[in-house]
């Protein structure tokens, strides 16, 4: 057909590890017509981003295009010189990355970065024309103050707005193709919906073709005409969006679809007289005097139950965790552990107090010391809290590795860098378990992980809870995770609790308006979900 | 008040306080020197009467804190006292010498700063290539040799063997600028060789460290050329460390040139300090120490302010 814009054939991309090359993308074929949106789906490491960048004739340092052909609008990108490829980049093929905050140069104003490609790099138009174009696009992307926002620097603009400004920047030369690489993954659900809307409108209006890369099926269902599923650099299957959602053919695709079905069994509610393991009572906390980040916060964590604390970034969820661990003593209110008052500050707590409340962090990468072996990472809290030595210590470490389903002989002497993301998070869990706590604070522990891996972690946490009678405080912004694991839900907004109760009640109407917004912003696996949600909004 | 202005005022206050602390240290260090100043200057043959008279004239009979305050008050008014060696006004003595030292420092800096930053940028652009490796080896070797060694090697070849430049850098008071530059070329070249490596390597490292940033990849994906990426996208974000290392080296050019000045018999402040130590001209030593400290603090202050001013996060609040 004539209107084929991009045709990739039998593409192979290799990455280097030391001196050997291994395959990242293996024999991918891809076709994209003008104005068409193709969704690329897969877990991290599936080669989605590498493939997306290859569509621009670009390979990152340490990777190389080892075979195949990439044909863009009649031009073979691989036979072009580097200068020839540079001439296409930004002008005819543009890129929108995951983290807008990191992708804008902090030293220049947004509008100067917008005009850079059309004016300085490709010499398409003069600065004034390009700036006018920028303001129009900012307006079309529904950015507040479209005339003034370009004069700001990236640190002065919020994440969702930056993401839209980056999409506008990608449109600056009116390209034929835009690669969107997880553009909304780092955003809250309520912000995500606005960015998705803006992207979809602009792409349709200018009839721009797009490759939309994501690991979130529900998102891609809103954006793409066709979906291609990748696994370890190979294609699993490809089909039009509706067909793919309705009837995935391959087992792997089906497993991706099924992830969201994990639900914990409802538990009997705690009795009136049960003393909660942890009680947070009217807590107010602040970093700067007079600016409370958490206001009048109260909730209970009962034995063997999971309390999910939900809210957008900046709602005070993590601050609440800091108060519980004693890192941030509250200015008002108190904490009770088994009915006894807990000293507000870390410095005044006994070793036993500390042992009882442990924490698992979002980024296992940074939470584990890269220079220590797994044996030391898990062994240290056992020594510190329980005083075990020698053989007993070794046995306990092995028991814990068994508990987190990692083979002790294989893993005990490894360094964190030799583990995958999910395995690292399991080590984080083992380290928390090592202290034999009653309550574990899980701060966004699955949000940096792929869905299948995240589900594995959730199931593990659930099993450990059933076996050991643990209580969890589970901080998350992802309502699917809440559905999966929570017994009780606390919804926070701007430092206050807007609604709380058992999960069974929380997911049934009537809701607090904010809870309602949150629930409605979670993308559903139906292709017209975004359209319907927007319609409802307009009616409201 | 604008936060930047506030920060600048804070830094200036801190600088003044540091200078005050240094004046105390300098004074106390001199106090701790063993022996009686008057006796040592007048020599062993002096009669007790002459020593006593001399002590009275110098004010050595006064308690230390009174002398310190006198000294400090004098300095604040621009009066550093008189030299013991020739009884001239120290302020006058120093100003001529400081002028010479500043001339040499500016001369060296005018060559070294642009040279090292452009070499650093080039090395970053051509990183991993032949140019990068050669320039690294050359600058590293030049900085590895002690400066007097570099100075004598230059003297041996460019002055003694090839007679291209004079070996003594004293230019008298009536030399033209060109004449001055010609006569001081060897000491300036020595200094350039010593400071270039540090600045060049820091520039290269600061730039290369940034090249893994997502906004650099973004610039590549917008079609920017490698040179544009280095100059437009990496350099503005690398300014703070570069400014700091430049300031550190400029301070060295003024305060660290003692040895180079001595080798080339250059009439600068360092030379004056060495002579004064030899002749036990304590007031001059104190004054030169304080001037060196002041220059050092001033340059670091300017570097601090500039690196704050080049950071849009601080310059433009949220």
TrEMBL record, chain A:
Superkingdom per UniProt: Bacteria
Single GO cellular component term: plasma membrane
GO biological process, one term: peptide transport
Record's subcellular location: Cell inner membrane
Bilayer-crossing regions: none
Protein keywords: ATP-binding, Cell membrane, Membrane, Nucleotide-binding, Transport
Annotated GO MF terms: ATP binding; ATP hydrolysis activity
Keyword GTP-binding: no
Protein's membrane topology: Peripheral membrane protein
A Pfam family assignment: ABC_tran
Subcellular location, principal: membrane
Domain ABC transporter: 6-257, 278-519
Annotated family: Belongs to the ABC transporter superfamily.
Protein name: ABC transporter
